[in-house]
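Fold it.
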Amino acid sequence: MEARNARGPLAAVTKSSTDTALRDIQELLTRGILLANPGGGRSTSYRLAEPENVTVTTIHE
């Protein structure tokens, strides 16, 4: 799965602000669930990590 300029569409789907969508994308990147494709800048695109490469941890808030 690949998404280009994901912040705007993610914000629309989740009915949140683009700032919140950016924080969510950054969290998914930190956890290794989402990977940035080569390139960058405003045209950064992302892909989901392969399930066998993702470590799931429980968060206690």
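Helices lie at 7-14, 18-30.
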